[in-house]
Amino acid sequence: MISRHSEATTSCPVPYRRPNRSQRRVLALSQPFGGCPIRCQLPFVVAITPAPGRAAEGCDAEVTAPKDPLGECAVSIGFVNARAALAIRSEVDRVNAPGLGAILDAVIERHRSVVLDLGELDSMSGWGLGVIAAQASRLRRSGGTPTIRSPSDLVLRMLDISGVAEPPHISRITAISADTDVVDGALRLVVALARATVGGADGVSVSLRRHGHLATVAASDQTISDMDASQYATGEGPCVDASVDGRWFHAESLDTETRWPAFTPRAQALGINAILSSPLLAEGRPFGALNIYSRTAMAFAPKDQELASVLAAEASLMLTSAGVDVTDEQLSSRRNEALGTRRLIAQAEGVIMEREGVEADDAYSMLCDYSRRSNRPFRERAEDVVASTKRPQFDPEPGPRQSHYG
Amino acid sequence: MAEISATERPADLLDRYRRNAGLSHGDLWLRYFELGGMDDALELEAILCGAIQPSAHDREVIAHALNERFVEIGGNHPVPYSEIDAERRPEEKHGP
Hints:
The structure holds two protein chains of two kinds.
Chain A: E1 46-49, H1 52-55, E2 62-64, E3 73-80, E4 83-88, H2 97-110, E5 113-117, H3 126-141, E6 145-149, H4 153-162, H5 180-197, E7 203-210, E8 213-219, H6 222-234, H7 238-245, E9 249-251, H8 263-269, E10 274-282, E11 285-294, H9 302-321, H10 328-356, H11 360-374, H12 378-388
Parallel strand pairs in A: 4-5, 5-6
Antiparallel strand pairs in A: 1-2, 1-3, 3-4, 7-8, 7-11, 9-10, 10-11
Chain B: H1 10-20, H2 25-34, H3 41-48, H4 56-72, H5 83-88
């Protein structure tokens, strides 16, 4: 809920209106903003209006819900840890430029890393350029980093001419990458949830494959971290196997466990008797594991095993969204594979162009239709076409349908 | 799973299909690139948010990249290959 007027400090009255549904945007305004203790439920859009009279009273900006854009500047503000992101959503003019300056002032007071999203602006007035240039310069002087996100070509050129664009301060990034602290915090939450909800769980950890090695990124305690480390050191254990094979591993009782002879005695020495490791998967590829340890043999009932799977699936989704699911070598391998397929498709296009006397786009459409009708991946159909050059006559669709490429 | 309506803006429609396919922008771009797409990741994202109008060829490549993903997860080429195609089958409301 947005703070009511009475909740604002007396030195900083913050009039506001709850925005209607159409005015809402994705926004996280979760920290006190400048001198104004604004609290609101997310998402929310604010628009600032110039408040020259209030500046002397210590008010950074007057915040209202957007109405007519004339005279107001709609700005979305988000904070992720130490980083602030502002998206300017309407043109900056003579009337609203001071307000924008005030709100940037307030943000820079608290944040050394500021992302200014200009993706919704086609162009920028001199007023806007002046405000942004002044604030960017101020932020740099104080050791901070301003980043301009998604400027249009015209805006980028204007910023360049005005001297605001100083690589590497300006970058056409498409998204703010997930903050590592946020991801780690979410993983700690997953660990705490698993610890609290899975029956028999005495300790929980999350392992991720990073730079070719497994590492524990969240653990309920040091014993559990040591348990994971023992598996990495011996190269065996349910956590390692789940992370590599992408399957679920359950050691019901280490007394009778024979699959991991080097690791099992180490686990028993630390008092662990049962382990449940569920893989973290992205598009079917394993990139880590959720590990649940118990001091009691046969501790995990079927419902607990099911719950562990659900938590692992949720953690997988969260990590995939944050872009930490793909290891360097997986990415490299995937890119190489993509390049190979791309080359193959180009060859197949060439074959069809030559045979059918069509343009490249038409050749591509034929391949596409051909893949769709046969319900086989594009790559396989391209392979067929390329392989057909080694035969006297290419038969695209053996059987009743004999037409070319679809 | 939210239903997909053929009356949505073309860009919204494509992006909704992307979300239903469980692909991030990066995942989709790599698939699009693999199938011969020429735009970079930023341009693809711009297409999906409606900032850039894709060429007919790009539209086809994006649709096929999405459809291959849907086939992997049990669908049957739900994504129209062109806007004309989308208008022809407004009754279809697909998701994985």
